[in-house]
């Protein structure tokens, strides 16, 4: 009896220590999850904090007197005169109305750097379109110069350096107080292609490039992936070739994406002589890359169709192909679509293989077809993140937010599809 | 005619063939007393006509379009007079772009040697001829296929059998694309790699300790050889991957344990998708985060405690990469832990062990091989990861063990060597393919090995 009690005693005494260990272990688990979720939160807040200003543009609104004498322009309908005219001058005049004291050369130069460098083009384009406006006064809204934009948006952020002289800062402060310099939603971001100047750069070109690339990827990867899955699940005989195909699919799913870029460079561009930096080649490469994902999820979807459906169809005399195409495929379709959307989301965020096939070029125009040079969203983000000009960092984070919005909506669509269409047997 | 116009035309013709064969089969069935006297439904006769007209034509079209550029190019280059024939590959591409610029009208023919202008004319006419022949051939094949199918609309022929066999063939081809892709990958790296080893000895590549792929423009320049020793790249890759695994394995494993053993169902339902979100974030976003937030932070902290850190430290890239592969490790470990039979767990708990003791002494040893497989897969992920290191790790190939230093990796070098101006024959470009081959082989071995472990382990308990 005493012996037993002492053993129970030993156990009881050790219990406290063991429970402490148990609690500690549980705490480690919570801490691990906490660290992971915390990094997710830090990642998102960092990007939003850096990037929300990318959605803001700085404008400067001036009453510009389109004086022919100031611009050395007699006839705005004459293209030769338009080429020679000085469109900077009326903008400077308009600014001088606020700062009459700025008359010497240095002041004028500093004054001229308040409006963005495309401001004079804007005046020219206006006169080119409507020559009759020569001599009138127009209220025009220009984009502010990049350094003004940085000053207005980030004056109290130490990670930005202000590149305005003290005089310019005083001017800008006054213009902001007067409401001449103002901030607005950055519609430039969504209506233009890339540019050397942050305030003029947009992601429309990259978005269109991404869409074109994704269309190519989808058109190739979805039918091929579904057909491959049907073959492997329904028709493939148990033999070496089938085994070999399966091994290949599993390995391709784990091959680093950059290797697919080498494949695209050597085969599509080198061997077939396709052009560089075009959505077709990008789409082909990404299609090969997403194919394993689509095949694997489509096979799972086919597997989940219960055998009773097949047996019923076969029982009333359907051929194997009819069973598959008329019954199994429609029932497996929601699962296949879900898997494909997730695969497409992966492809949309992929960067590395596209760098190798030349989609990193600096492209200003919005691409207009599958064979025109283009870049895609993640590559545009990469390019901006590496730019020296400080205004590009906020654009890169804004681009990331746009990209993440696309990805999250695609995944939400996949989840919704699964909930809505998938049947439980 | 352009391929882009020819393709829809072929498809339209296939639809026409479908319609014609459909009507024909009904017409054939009419005197016999309705379609029940046909061996197959009219749909199958029609579908067969469409397939037979479209498929051969599309195959020919694809082959022609793939190779016409190269063939024409070779003919044109061969036609150049001897004094203009290019000596090197670099010169060849220059001459070629000259010729195509003249042909495209971007360059005045008067400005180039006569031979070039002649070649441009030849290029023009060959291109025109090629697209003419292509159009005629493809359309001919389409019509012939349709006509053949039309004559074969007979009541005793089983068209359904034909259609189904064709479809099966197509399905098989689609599955075989996976094999073709692998072959494509192997061949695309192997040729360039062999050429690279013709220029740089394989022993120097594998065991050299210095990497500076700058080849000189002129042969007599100092240091014109460049150094192609892969060791510093490998140590750099290994260091960053090791840091990543040091972050990801404990965090991923512990989260998986907590989620599968302790977490209540609602907690699991919320936390699991959140963790997977980490895997869904594009790598370029992690790269941005590593380069612009984590790296400066690490540099500042190191300065604060009196250490010197590079602004592109291996630590920053490794930490962020670790965060990226957390969900990878956790979902694989989760699978493995859940595969351990219930009986082992219940037995241990029934003996009075606490949950953590059960975990540490029973489940974990049983799941260990599977977890190792998962870690190997994660390692292959880390080694092949590109964007984070391209953006956050440096270009300097330092052979160092200090994680605060800047190192470079295999993938970074592939990207740097292949973006920007390049000529296809220089050792620099070829080196990128050799690195790609190395990367492919290493990740392949890791993957095959890991998959084998995971599968073997699963079979044991199933």
Automatic annotation (TrEMBL), chain A:
InterPro entries referenced in this protein's UniProt entry, alphabetically: DUF3333 (IPR024573), MetI-like (IPR000515), MetI-like_sf (IPR035906), Phosphate_PstA (IPR005672)
Protein's GO biological process: phosphate ion transmembrane transport
Entry's Gene Ontology cellular component terms: plasma membrane
Residue stretches making up the ABC transmembrane type-1 domain: 207-414
Chief localization: membrane
Molecular function terms, GO-annotated: phosphate transmembrane transporter activity
Subcellular location: Cell inner membrane; Cell membrane
Parts of the chain that traverse the membrane: 25-45, 203-232, 252-274, 280-302, 395-417
PROSITE patterns: ABC_TM1
Keywords (A to Z) from UniProt: Cell membrane, Membrane, Transmembrane, Transmembrane helix, Transport
Membrane topology qualifier: Multi-pass membrane protein
PANTHER family: PHOSPHATE TRANSPORT SYSTEM PERMEASE PROTEIN PSTA, PHOSPHATE TRANSPORT SYSTEM PERMEASE PROTEIN PSTA-RELATED
Family to which this protein belongs: Belongs to the binding-protein-dependent transport system permease family. CysTW subfamily.
Protein name, UniProt field: Phosphate transport system permease protein PstA
Organism: Marinobacter profundi
UniProtKB/TrEMBL annotation, chain B:
Gene Ontology cellular component terms for the protein in this record: plasma membrane
Gene3D superfamilies per record: MetI-like
Cellular localization per UniProt: Cell inner membrane; Cell membrane
Membrane topology according to the record: Multi-pass membrane protein
Predominant location category: membrane
Entry superkingdom: Bacteria
Described purpose of this protein according to its UniProt entry: Part of the binding-protein-dependent transport system for phosphate; probably responsible for the translocation of the substrate across the membrane.
Name of the protein in its database record: Phosphate transport system permease protein
């Amino acid at each position: 009896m005493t012996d037993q009690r002492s053993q129970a005693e030993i156990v009881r005494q050790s219990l406290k220590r063991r429970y402490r260990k148990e609690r500690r272990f549980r705490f480690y688990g919570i801490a691990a999850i906490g660290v992971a979720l915390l990094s997710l939160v830090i990642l998102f807040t960092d990007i939003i904090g850096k990037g929300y200003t990318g959605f803001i543009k700085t404008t400067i609104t001036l009453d510009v007197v389109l004086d022919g004498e100031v611009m050395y322009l007699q006839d705005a309908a004459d293209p030769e005169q338009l080429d020679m005219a000085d469109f900077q001058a009326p903008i400077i005049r308009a600014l001088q109305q606020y700062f009459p004291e700025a008359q010497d050369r240095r002041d004028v130069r500093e004054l001229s750097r308040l409006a963005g460098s495309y401001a004079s083009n804007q005046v020219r384009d206006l006169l080119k379109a409507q020559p009759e406006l020569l001599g009138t006064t127009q209220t025009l809204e220009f984009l502010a110069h990049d350094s003004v934009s940085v000053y207005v948006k980030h004056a109290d952020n130490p990670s930005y350096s202000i590149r305005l002289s003290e005089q310019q800062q005083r001017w800008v402060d006054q213009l902001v107080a007067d409401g001449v310099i103002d901030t607005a939603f950055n519609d430039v971001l969504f209506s233009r292609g890339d540019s050397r100047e942050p305030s003029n750069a947009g992601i429309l070109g990259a978005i269109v490039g991404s869409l074109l690339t994704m269309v190519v990827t989808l058109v190739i990867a979805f039918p091929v992936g579904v057909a491959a899955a049907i073959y492997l699940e329904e028709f493939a005989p148990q033999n070496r070739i089938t085994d070999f195909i399966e091994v290949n699919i599993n390995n391709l799913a784990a091959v680093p994406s950059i290797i697919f870029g080498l494949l695209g460079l050597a085969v599509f561009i080198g061997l077939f002589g396709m052009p560089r930096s075009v959505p077709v080649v990008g789409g082909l490469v990404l299609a090969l890359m997403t194919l394993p994902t689509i095949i694997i999820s489509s096979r799972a979807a086919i597997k989940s169709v219960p055998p009773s459906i097949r047996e019923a169809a076969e029982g009333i005399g359907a051929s194997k192909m009819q069973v598959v195409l008329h019954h199994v495929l429609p029932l497996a379709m929601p699962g296949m679509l879900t898997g494909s959307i997730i695969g497409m989301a992966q492809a949309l965020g992929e960067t590395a293989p596209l760098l190798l096939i030349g989609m990193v070029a600096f492209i200003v125009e919005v691409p207009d077809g599958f064979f025109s040079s283009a870049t895609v969203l993640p590559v545009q983000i990469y390019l901006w993140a590496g730019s020296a000009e400080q205004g590009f960092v906020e654009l890169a984070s804004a681009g990331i937010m746009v990209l993440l919005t696309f990805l999250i909506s695609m995944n939400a669509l996949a989840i919704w599809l699964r909930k809505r269409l998938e049947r439980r047997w | 005619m352009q391929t882009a116009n020819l393709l829809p035309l072929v498809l339209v013709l296939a639809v026409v063939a479908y319609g014609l064969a459909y009507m024909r089969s009904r017409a054939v069935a009419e005197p016999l007393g309705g379609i029940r006297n046909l061996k197959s439904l009219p749909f199958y006769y029609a579908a067969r006509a469409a397939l037979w007209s479209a498929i051969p034509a599309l195959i020919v079209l694809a082959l022609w379009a793939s190779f016409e550029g190269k063939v024409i190019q070779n003919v044109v280059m061969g036609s150049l007079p001897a004094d203009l024939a290019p000596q090197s590959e670099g010169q060849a591409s220059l001459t070629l772009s000259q010729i195509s610029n003249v042909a495209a009208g971007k360059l005045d023919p008067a400005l180039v040697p006569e031979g070039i202008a002649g070649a441009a004319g030849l290029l023009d006419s060959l291109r025109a001829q090629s697209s003419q022949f292509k159009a005629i051939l493809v359309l001919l094949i389409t019509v012939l296929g349709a006509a053949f199918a039309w004559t074969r609309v007979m009541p005793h022929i089983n068209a359904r059998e034909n259609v189904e066999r064709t479809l099966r063939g197509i399905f098989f081809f689609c599955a075989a694309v996976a094999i073709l892709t692998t072959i494509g990958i192997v061949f695309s790296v192997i040729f360039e790699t062999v050429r690279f080893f013709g220029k740089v000895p394989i022993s120097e590549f594998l065991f050299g300790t210095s990497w500076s792929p700058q080849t000189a423009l002129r042969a007599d320049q100092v240091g014109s050889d460049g150094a192609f020793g892969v060791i510093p790249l490998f140590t750099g890759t290994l260091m960053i991957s090791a840091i990543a695994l040091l972050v990801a394995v404990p965090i991923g494993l512990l989260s998986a344990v907590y989620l599968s053993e302790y977490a209540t169902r609602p907690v699991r339902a919320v936390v699991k998708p959140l963790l997977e979100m980490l895997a869904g974030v594009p790598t370029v976003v992690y790269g941005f985060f590593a380069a612009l937030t984590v790296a400066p932070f690490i540099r500042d902290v190191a300065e604060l405690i009196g250490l010197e850190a590079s602004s592109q430290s291996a630590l920053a890239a490794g930490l962020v990469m670790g965060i990226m592969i957390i969900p990878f490790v956790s979902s694989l470990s989760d699978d493995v832990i859940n595969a351990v039979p219930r009986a082992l767990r219940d037995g241990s708990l029934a003996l009075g062990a606490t949950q953590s003791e059960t975990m540490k002494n029973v489940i974990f040893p049983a799941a260990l091989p599977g977890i190792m497989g998962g870690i190997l897969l994660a390692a292959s992920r880390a080694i092949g990861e590109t964007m984070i290191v391209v953006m956050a790790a440096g270009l300097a190939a330092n052979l160092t063990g200090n994680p605060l230093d800047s190192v470079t990796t295999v993938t970074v070098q592939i990207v740097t060597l292949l973006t920007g101006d390049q000529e296809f024959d220089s050792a620099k470009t070829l080196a990128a393919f050799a690195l790609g081959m190395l990367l492919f082989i290493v990740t392949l071995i890791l993957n095959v090995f890991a998959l084998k472990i995971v599968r073997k382990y699963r079979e044991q308990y199933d």
